[in-house]
Amino acid sequence: ESLQKIYIRLVDELTAWHIKILALFHAPEAWFCQRNRQAPQFAMTSSLQALLEKAFAELAGKRDFYDYIARDLYLKGLLSTDALHTNMSPSGAYQSRSTELGKGFISFITVAPQCL
Questions:
Q1: Partners of 88 in the beta sheet?
Q2: Hey, which of 84, 87, 96, 106 would disulfide with 48, CB 3.0 to 4.6 Å?
Q3: What b/e sequence results for 49-71 when a residue is b if at least 16 CB atoms lie within 10 Å of its CB, and e otherwise?
Q4: 55 vs 12, 24, 25, 47, 97, CA distance in Å?
Q5: What tens digit of pLDDT does each residue of 3-20 get?
Q6: Residue ranges in the chain assigned as alpha helix (H)
Q7: What span, in angstroms and rounded, lies between the C-alpha atoms of 116 and 99?
């Protein structure tokens, strides 16, 4: 019951961009699959920023905006990191960044199609 109340409060507080970005970082490969889009292939290194800007072209060049959203999601306990600009392996960029609270919130608000 307490978690449901937290989730309902979050639905009221979060913007559409909060939810879009959380959904992407919750399961990046599934996010692309569910939208019938090819997941970006990165050569040597990548970052969460690169993944985000490939997913949402309209956010390219709007670093202050999406950094604010990522930081807010992190402070609310929904994302495990707010470091979008750290270089990492391509496979590292596709790891889930949602916390247990974030995973529960995503489950609470979505019924997503399955992708294999």
A1: 46
A2: 84
A3: bbbbbbbeeebeeeeeebeebbe
A4: 25, 8, 10, 13, 15
A5: 999 999 999 999 999 999
A6: 2-13, 16-26, 28-34, 48-55, 63-75, 90-93, 100-109
A7: 22
- In this structure, what are the phi and psi dihedrals at residue 98, rounded to the nearest 5 degrees? -80, 145
Report the candidate in 27, 20, 32 with the shortest Cα–Cα distance to residue 96: 27
Q: What is the per-residue pLDDT across 17-33, written as a single tens digit (0 to 9) for each?
A: 999 999 999 999 999 99
Q: Which helix (H) or strand (E) holds 24?
A: helix 16-26
Residue in the structure block whose two tokens are 């596709």: 94
Instruction: Say if CB 59 and CB 52 are below 8 A apart.
Output: yes
Contact 87, 46 (CB under 8 A): yes
> How many angstroms separate the CA atoms of 23 and 35, rounded?
12
19: three-class secondary structure by DSSP: helix
